[in-house]
Amino acid sequence: MIIVSEDAKRIVHAVARAALPEGQSLRLERTTNNGGTKEKVVMLIEEATEGDEAVEHEGEPLLYVSRKVSAAYDGCVVDLEQTPKGAVLSIGPPLAGRNSRT
Asked: Please, which residues have CB within 8 angstroms of residue 74's CB and are 6 or more apart in sequence?
């Protein structure tokens, strides 16, 4: 199971309220670049898929995590991180601390 920090939940909740069309959800999914050599986790706006893991905020589904992401990042933390370019969501080991997640 992936853990989503309270800071990350608050920002995802704000984005979802402002941008999601009816019937759509935010999902974390794995994807590869065009050459298929580098995999990354992306957040998509689409319908939840069977087998997705729901992350709740204030008793409501906030974000869905695909099976692939859940399996690959089991026990990791999604957190809000401040960078020179602004705030970003990062994912990494729980004990790594901020600024060390990808």
From this structure: 1, 2
Distances (CA, A) of 63 to 9, 36, 100: 9, 26, 23
The CATH label, of 2.60.300.12, 3.40.50.410, 3.30.300.20, 3.50.50.60, for the domain at 3-92 is 2.60.300.12
Task: Tell me if the pTM is above 0.85.
Answer: no
Question: β-strand 86-92 against 25-32: which pairing, if any?
Answer: unpaired
Which tens digits make up the pLDDT trace of 34-77?
776 788 889 999 999 999 999 998 888 999 999 999 999 999 99
**What 3-state class would DSSP assign to 48?**
coil
Asked if 48 and 54 touch (Cβ cutoff 8 Å), the reply is yes
Q: Which residues pair with 44 in a beta bridge?
A: 27
